[in-house]
């Protein structure tokens, strides 16, 4: 009996540690996904990180049927093209999804009103508007131009440079090169 206890005593803590690490990694993945969704929740245009995080919900929260159910309802709404689905209904479904994730992660004090708050500095909005206008104008020009005509531009000062002497560069193999 002592031999069995002696043999099992180092194995049991290792197994407990491995189980704990697995739980911690799963929780960390859930928190990373949740914080990414929170960070980019009202970004426009929609960020790649936000879209990728949504696509991971089925995998990362597979052991949370309420979260997966809320995600599927939100996903179904995202597939609808009607303007009625875009407004308050979509926002409501997203808030329910995020609230369920928060509850699953133990963020009990986080309310839907907290999730709905989002700060964007005015400068970021101005830059996004400028980028949009610039891209739209550039696209308009490209679509309405059948071809680009170019003519050679003289970059040299006036005068004939055909007789100009260009100093010869030493080659790499030149022994006189330092």
- How many H/I helices? 8
Structural class: mainly alpha
The total count of strands amounts to 0
The largest β sheet comes out as: none
SSE topology string: HHHHHHHH
Q: Which whole number gives the mean pLDDT? A: 79
Q: How far apart lie the N and C ends?
A: 80 Å
Over all CA atoms, what is the radius of gyration?
A: 31 Å
Task: Write down the overall geometry.
Answer: flat
Strand content: under 5%
In the predicted model, the low-confidence regions spanning at least 5 consecutive residues are none
Count up the domains.
1
Binned, the helix content reads 55-70%
Molecular structure report:
The chain has one domain (2-140). Helix 2 packs antiparallel against helix 3 (48-60), helix 2 runs antiparallel to helix 6 (88-105) and helix 4 (65-79) runs antiparallel to helix 6 (88-105). 63% of the residues lie in helices and 0% in strands. It has helices at 2-8, 11-39, 48-60, 65-79, 83-86, 88-105, 112-116, 122-143.
Observed structural traits:
single chain; 178 residues; mainly alpha; flat
Question: Layout of helices and strands, plus pairs?
Answer:
Elements: H1 2-8, H2 11-39, H3 48-60, H4 65-79, H5 83-86, H6 88-105, H7 112-116, H8 122-143
Helix pairs in contact: 2-3, 2-6, 4-6
Care to give the gist of this entry?
The protein has 178 residues and is mainly α. It has helices at residues 2-8, 11-39, 48-60, 65-79, 83-86, 88-105, 112-116, 122-143.
């Amino acid at each position: 009996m002592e031999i069995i206890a002696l043999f099992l005593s180092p194995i049991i803590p290792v197994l407990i540690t491995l189980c704990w690490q697995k739980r911690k990694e799963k929780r960390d993945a859930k928190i990373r996904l949740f914080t990414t969704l929170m960070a980019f929740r009202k970004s426009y245009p929609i960020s790649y990180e936000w879209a990728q995080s949504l696509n991971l919900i089925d995998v990362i929260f597979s052991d949370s049927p309420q979260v997966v159910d809320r995600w599927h309802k939100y996903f179904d709404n995202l597939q609808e093209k009607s303007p009625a689905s875009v407004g308050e209904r979509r926002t409501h479904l997203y808030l329910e999804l995020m609230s369920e994730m928060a509850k699953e992660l133990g963020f009990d004090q986080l309310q839907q009103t907290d999730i709905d708050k989002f700060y964007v500095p005015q400068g970021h909005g101005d830059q996004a508007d400028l980028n949009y206008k610039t891209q739209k104008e550039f696209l308009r020009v490209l679509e309405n131009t059948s071809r680009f005509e170019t003519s050679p531009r003289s970059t040299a000062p006036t005068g004939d440079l055909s007789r100009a002497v260009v100093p010869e560069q030493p080659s790499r193999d030149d022994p006189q090169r330092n």
